[in-house]
Specification:
By secondary structure, this protein is mainly alpha-helical. The protein is about 65% helix and about 0% strand. It contains 14 helices and no strands. The termini are far apart. The relative contact order is 0.08.
């Protein structure tokens, strides 16, 4: 794998792989690694996606070798991938991690198709993609170059994943919320409302957190126009109301 990894980190890995294909070197490593038209298409899209992402100057940068390796394994079922992992002397941990990533990519793609079908909110798209490592997200784009899915992943990478809420754990503490799972649950729901444009400023987010902490209905907040006069008012001190 060391030699392949060096190739994957070259400026033009696909050209190197094509030369290896011409000399039958990929098939010599294992016949399952031989280039096919479909693999070449994905490898070319990986090259395009990597170049696109680099031009964004966003951190972190992906492990490029992993992206190209995923592309080279395009079309392999789990058993075939396990054969390649053993042939390349991957440790059990690395092989397991990559196999899990391949499954996560498939599950995420299916989740996005379902989200698109039922026209879900943007926050649902965010929470679908947020657990997926950067390499998985970029590979999804490469595998779906002419589908809306690429647009959705691009939107997540450039916009959605940078969304932050203005409510903190300290605010929840002042509201009387005990540290623990409820912290994460409340912040999760506030973030979702922020992404969906239902709580766009700190005042609205704090009010939503306050209602969630007290177990009060939140529909009145989510159903009214966001970013109105409420956002212009002086901030009310967070309190538990006790």
């Amino acid at each position: 794998m060391h030699e392949l990894r060096i190739i994957f980190e070259e400026k033009t890995p696909l050209s190197c792989l094509r030369r290896m294909q011409d000399y039958k070197l990929l098939a010599a490593v294992h016949p399952l690694l031989a280039l096919t038209p479909s693999k070449e298409a994905v490898l070319l899209e990986v090259e395009n996606v990597v170049n696109w992402y680099r031009l964004l100057y966003i951190e972190p940068q992906p492990q490029v070798w992993l992206l190209y390796f995923l592309a080279l394994c395009t079309g392999l079922d789990p058993e075939q991938f396990a054969i390649i992992a053993r042939r390349l002397n991957f440790s059990k941990r690395v092989a397991g991690d990559i196999a899990a990533l391949r499954q996560q990519i498939r599950d995420t793609a299916q989740g996005i198709f379902n989200w698109e079908y039922h026209k879900g909110p943007l926050s649902e798209l965010y929470f679908l993609l947020e657990p997926l490592p950067l390499e998985g997200a970029l590979y999804l784009m490469a595998r779906n170059p002419r589908e809306p899915l690429q647009k959705y992943v691009s939107m997540h990478l450039t916009t959605l994943r940078h969304k932050r809420v203005e409510v903190t754990g300290n605010d929840l503490k002042k509201l009387g919320v005990e540290a623990g799972p409820r912290y994460a649950d409340i912040l999760h729901r506030v973030l979702g409302a922020a992404i969906d444009g239902q709580a766009v400023c700190r005042a609205e987010q704090l009010e939503l957190a306050r209602r969630l902490a007290r177990g009060e209905p939140i529909a009145p907040i989510l159903e009214r126009p966001a970013g109105g006069e409420r956002c212009q008012l002086p901030e009310e001190p967070a309190s538990s109301g006790s």
